């Protein structure tokens, strides 16, 4: 069994920095900003080939209200499921009432706890750590998460209490199923949908734009099938983004889109399809990711508004006619289960193996039905095709003058491949390569007999020219 280690403490004591240090990643957002982390974030770490799972949590103060209350609840849930708790305190701020409250909670839960005084650099260690012994949690361990000072020795001691469990690479890289990212504008219901798909209140939901600030990866199983769902921060128009924290959140969301196999674009049905939704859709297609569109809050609309929204979708989404559209209510669960059907179909289409023989036959049939146009008096020739990649499917077509293939003919070929291969839910990329002329750039060397014949012909040509 791999030990689970939760990082808890007040806001801004360095939990996310410690999480990144333990997992050797930059997965958690870090800034000099209290309350930046809101959801539980999981990551895998390794010390001396011994594996563990770290959980980053939001800060707890004890006087939370509103969204902070939901955030603190997520932190306490992390304590419940952890085997060990690293209780981080700020050695520069000293002992606070919030530290005492958290220590009382950990004692009540009887959790194995290590008290970690972070930001110890530049101070007298004994003086800085002395006040924290009052918490009655035993030894105080000094660390500097930003520099890694004291972290490795602390983790070696923590992991000594667990049986050695070295995970082989094959197990470590086992398939975690379909990665699906839930993306959209702020406050369209992304976190509510994530909780509905998971069947539990896994991420913080609050009626306030910008509740989710980081991309949260969650592994789970449904009907014995593995999935990874990614809850992301909402993306607003660039002119409305002013805070640096929000800029980093958007970067994380764009990275999640690139990392996902399938993207579920969530749209607020009450507002209809807006330009920002189309921009997001365009980015997903540019990244080559399979796409499913879901209109949330559908059950709250009257019939007239529903008909208007459907007409708008038909008019404005012609460029993504390959994507399934679902009308759902994340809050009540209406239509949410059907999302899995489209997600699995899109994933299958994006990752299916395409054979050269099959692709070439499709290309030849398409050319026979509708020949490529003439360029410079010569017909463009397309000879054969083969697969060039997955997710998105890339089809490489070889022939002559392929750089001159017009866009309308490329569209015809794309639709033909999509129809015959039944590539539903994913964009297709066509790449064209011209066959190289094997004699290009090579000088023709004449034999002595050919050279003599050439001289005689040239002399005859010059004499006939003089007579004229």
Automatic annotation (TrEMBL):
UniProt binding sites for GTP 2: 184-191, 231-235, 296-299
Compositional bias segments (type: Basic residues): 451-468
One GO process term, biological-process aspect: ribosome biogenesis
SUPFAM superfamilies in the cross-refs: P-loop containing nucleoside triphosphate hydrolases
Keywords, comma-separated and alphabetical: GTP-binding, Nucleotide-binding, Repeat, Ribosome biogenesis
InterPro entries in alphabetical order: AAA+_ATPase (IPR003593), G_ENGA (IPR031166), GTP-bd (IPR006073), GTPase_Der (IPR016484), KH_dom-like (IPR032859), KH_dom-like_a/b (IPR015946), P-loop_NTPase (IPR027417), Small_GTP-bd (IPR005225)
Pfam families the record matches: KH_dom-like (PF14714), MMR_HSR1 (PF01926)
Positions of the EngA-type G domain: 3-166, 178-351
Residue numbers spanned by region Disordered: 434-468
Residues noted as binding GTP 1 in the record, renumbered to the chain: 9-16, 56-60, 118-121
GO-annotated molecular function: GTP binding; ribosome binding
Spans through the membrane: none
Top-level lineage group: Bacteria
Known role: GTPase that plays an essential role in the late steps of ribosome biogenesis.
Subunit comment: Associates with the 50S ribosomal subunit.
Membership in a protein family: Belongs to the TRAFAC class TrmE-Era-EngA-EngB-Septin-like GTPase superfamily. EngA (Der) GTPase family.
Name of the protein in question: GTPase Der
Organism: Pseudoteredinibacter isoporae
